[in-house]
Design goal:
The protein contains 27 helices and 20 strands. It is α/β, with parallel strands linked by helices. Helix 23 links the parallel strand 17 and strand 18. The structure holds ligand C2E and calcium ion (2 copies). Ligand C2E binds next to strand 13, helix 17 and strand 17.
Length: 810
């Protein structure tokens, strides 16, 4: 640190003081030269006009000082020295001019430059000035003795004057020195306080969870510590939205990596000259601090500071970088959570495949339309549209073609209706259109035929031309009811009529309600199946511990071997059973089968848990818990080995009753988990009030999480959320080894899916559970052939996994 800089940190204040003294000096010089009367008997040896000379010299240095202030030039050492020499010279000139008058006390002016040196310069400078002035004064006395002999210069008078000069200037100088130190101390304490305050303010503002604010505050806070051109940069791969990336001339990726290395040990590095590898001004250093965010790769805080950089400033810079780290982390977490919640909110009301409103939003919109039509007297139509032959297309051409077709259908339908109308997807290949403001039934029928004609035109999907037909059933208010549920049911049965009579478009008629023959006969078959041994079977899909692939249990999944239609999947008949009281018997039946099977699970596997699915309607059943208790005790099962899976929509249908049932179940000791989590929770706050200890992340997020970063973020958020609420997490739909290992990285507890094992029948599962351990997951991607539990015994009973399940409708 320079001597000047160290002892006199605020030269500008002394500069200003000196300027004032000089102006006063100018004023006094005017008076002195104008009014001066020489001692009697002597004449002035020069014209009074010569008095303007020192005046001009004093004024000139003052004006130059002012200009420098205006131009913001620093009061550097050279300038200070110049002023000192200048002032001394002017005083010596004045003394020389008045050499003829020895009685004048002007010699006392010599004190001024010594004081100036003492207050602004080092001790050495003060001494130099003092001795230079002494010499100048002795020379002056010599001139006096030679030119004005009448003045009788004596050694006595010279030493006396120099002694006075010395004593006064040194005592005042030391006083001034002490005073300046004190002032400096207060000033530096004040500036430290300012810095702390700025830091506190920055920290508070940085917690605003907004990246732009973090960047701005970082810059402002570091300016307090004397840094300039501060930049907060992340490398180009970083995911902090809004944080400036590398690029451009100044900071490239190579330099960024070097700096990460340089800061790896202390988190901060000071670079000067060539070291910095960036253009730096002379006497400037580059300070780089690492901003480590937990969620992303690295960022750097880079700033320039004049040399040398005080420790305190470095510490401040480092502190700001650390604050920025946590602020960025928080901002990003918040951003993720917000996106997650938006997505959940959207998912709660929209179909994920087509983006159309779902049944919940449809209900809501239809209700509003009906209420409005009551005032206007117009008609509101509800059209139930079902694609014929869709299942065939799906089975023959595959799900991706099926999905693409559904998306095209959705967009055609949406194009034909007005923005204020609603087109919703309510099932696999079922759509509902609700239109308000029809003047009469003719216009309703017209629209229905237009929709049907639009779907009749061929579709081009993945290079295949597809012809499909649609059956449309219509009901409208007020004629067919003014309740959404009634209208939907009636449009549905009109659709069945259209389908069975192959009529295309059919309006509701009361007699059609008796129809839906498929439904009726299937329900009859199902009722009989509950009595017939072997038709309904519980299959089991293994669930493993993610960290060590140990078997943790299994989910029971229903299968129906229909006497004439063959193997039926739950999606084919459970929704239908859910519409009737039959679902209660069905649930009891599955539980009975699964608990019975559990008694054959190998001894020594009491840690294995069985999961059984519950339907929404089961939750409204006050006697469910009693029957579960009876079944548990009949099979002698430890309730802690059983859990039920419930979807959130089941809870939301009638929260009070559902939660009451859930509490009754947990009172028995069984566990509860939220199935298909992420596909419809409208209120996260709801979750923490439910007596559940596990969530099951829906397979639509898991299956694609390695290909869709958005899905992965969702999975991570759900895991964090569940763990935050003290719950365990199961990821379902794990179809390959990479996903399983990524889930381990994310801290997921349990996993289920075709990669681990598909659902298998009870014998295959028994054999597998008795086995030593789960086959090690394959390392390559598995798309078609799953890792089969149980090995050889299972060939004939393993299901072919679906390659895609999205949007096939359950
Ligand atoms: P869920 O509870 O979500 O069951 C998981 C479904 O995902 C099963 O289909 C299973 O075969 C399938 N799955 C398993 N691993 C993978 C995978 O890696 N990738 C893909 N794409 N899918 C996988 P499943 O057996 O057809 O069951 C469909 C739905 O039917 C179940 O969905 C459940 O909601 C319902 N269900 C099944 N059995 C019962 C039951 O006994 N009672 C009730 N109420 N519902 C049941
Ligand atoms: Ca389930
Ligand atoms: Ca599920």
């Amino acid at each position: 640190m320079g001597a000047l800089g160290a002892s006199r940190e605020d030269p500008s204040a002394i500069d200003a003081l000196m300027r004032k003294i000089r102006w006063v000096g100018c004023l006094m010089a005017v008076v002195q030269f104008a009014l001066y009367t020489p001692p009697s008997g002597h004449a002035m040896p020069f014209s009074r006009w010569w008095g303007a000379l020192p005046l001009v010299l004093l004024a000139a240095v003052n004006v130059a000082g002012l200009v420098r202030v205006r131009r913001r030039l620093p009061a550097d050492e050279g300038w200070v020295r110049f002023q000192l020499v200048w002032d001394s010279a002017v005083i010596v000139v004045v003394l020389l001019m008045f050499s003829f008058d020895d009685s004048s006390a002007l010699w006392a002016l010599l004190i001024l430059p010594v004081l100036e040196a003492a207050t602004r310069g080092s001790r050495r400078q003060t001494l130099t000035t003092f001795f230079a002035l002494c010499i100048a004064y002795v020379v002056r006395e010599g001139v006096v003795a030679a030119v004005y002999p009448y003045n009788n210069v004596t050694l006595d008078s010279v030493t006396y004057r120099l002694a006075v000069l010395g004593i006064v200037s040194f005592s005042v100088a030391s006083l001034a020195d002490r005073l300046t130190r004190q002032i400096m101390g207060t000033a530096s304490a004040r500036s430290e306080a300012d810095q702390l305050r700025a830091l506190a303010v920055a920290t508070r503002l940085m917690s605003s969870l907004d990246v732009a604010t973090v960047v701005r505050e970082v810059t402002q806070a570091t300016e307090q510590f004397g840094f300039s051109r501060v930049e907060l940069r992340s490398d180009s791969g970083v995911l902090v939205d809004g944080l400036p990336r590398n690029g451009g001339v100044m900071i490239n990726d190579r330099w960024f990596l070097q700096m990460l290395q340089a800061t790896s040990r202390d988190g901060i590095a000071v670079l000067a000259g060539d070291e910095a590898d960036l253009e730096l001004a002379d006497g400037e250093a580059l300070v780089v601090a690492r901003v480590s965010t937990r969620l992303t790769t690295e960022a750097l805080l880079v700033g320039r500071h004049g040399l040398p950089v005080p420790t305190q400033h470095l510490e401040g810079f480092h502190l700001v970088a650390e604050q920025a780290s946590s602020a960025l982390d928080n901002a990003q977490r918040y951003e993720e959570r917000r996106a997650f919640q938006n997505k959940l909110a959207h998912q709660a009301t929209h179909d994920s495949l087509t983006g159309l409103p779902n049944r919940a939003l449809l209900n809501d919109r239809a209700q509003t339309a009906i209420a409005r039509s009551r005032r206007t007297g117009s008609l509101v139509s509800v059209m139930f549209i079902d694609l014929d032959r869709f299942k065939e297309i799906n089975d023959v051409l595959g799900h991706s073609v099926g999905d693409a077709l559904l998306i095209s259908v959705a967009s055609r339908l949406s194009e034909l209706i007005r923005p204020e109308d609603t087109c919703a997807r309510v099932g696999g290949d079922e759509f509902v259109v609700v239109c308000a403001d029809h003047a009469n039934d003719v216009s309703v029928l017209e629209l229905a035929h237009r929709l049907r004609a639009a779907l009749h035109a061929p579709f081009q999907v993945e290079g295949i031309v597809l012809d499909i037909e649609a059956s449309i059933g219509i009901a409208w208010s007020p004629e067919h009811g003014d309740d959404v549920a009634d209208l939907l049911r009636r449009a549905d049965s009109a659709m069945y009529a259209a389908k069975s009579r192959k009529e295309g478009v059919v309006s509701y008629r009361a007699e059609d309600d008796q129809l839906a023959p498929m439904h009726l006969s299937m329900l009859g078959d199902l009722r009989r199946a509950l009595e017939a041994p072997g038709q309904l079977q519980a299959w089991f899909q293994p669930i493993v511990v993610v960290s060590d692939h140990r078997l943790a249990g299994a989910e029971a999944l229903l299968r129906w071997d229909h006497p004439t239609s063959g193997r039926m999947q739950p999606g084919d008949f459970i929704p239908m059973a859910e519409g009737t009281a039959l679902i209660h018997q069905l649930t009891d039946h599955v539980l009975d089968l699964a608990l019975e099977s559990m008694t054959h699970w190998p001894v020594g596997s009491p840690q294995l848990r069985l999961s059984v699915n519950l339907s929404p309607r089961n939750l409204l059943d006050a006697s469910l818990a009693t029957r579960v208790e009876a079944l548990l005790s009949r099979h002698g099962t430890d309730p802690r080995q059983v859990r039920f899976e419930i979807t959130e929509s089941a809870v939301l249908a009638d929260p009070t009753r559902a939660v009451a049932t859930m509490h009754r179940l947990t009172a028995l000791g069984v566990g509860l988990s939220i199935d298909d989590f992420g596909t419809g929770f409208s209120s996260m706050s709801h979750l923490k009030n439910l007596p559940v200890d596990q969530i099951k992340i829906d397979r639509s997020f898991v299956t694609d999480m390695l290909r869709s970063s958005q899905d992965r973020v969702m999975v991570r958020s759900m895991i964090d959320l569940a763990h935050g609420l003290g719950m365990h997490v199961v990821a379902e739909g794990v179809e390959d080894a990479d996903t399983l290992s990524d889930l381990e990285t994310l801290g997921c507890d349990l996993a289920q899916g075709y990669h681990i094992g598909p659902p298998v029948d009870r014998e295959a599962f028994h054999a597998f559970a008795a086995g030593p351990s789960l086959p090690a997951p394959r390392t390559e991607r598995v798309t078609a052939t799953p890792v089969v539990p149980g090995g050889a015994a299972t060939d004939s009973v393993v299901e072919r996994p679906l390659t895609s399940v999205t949007g096939t409708g359950e």
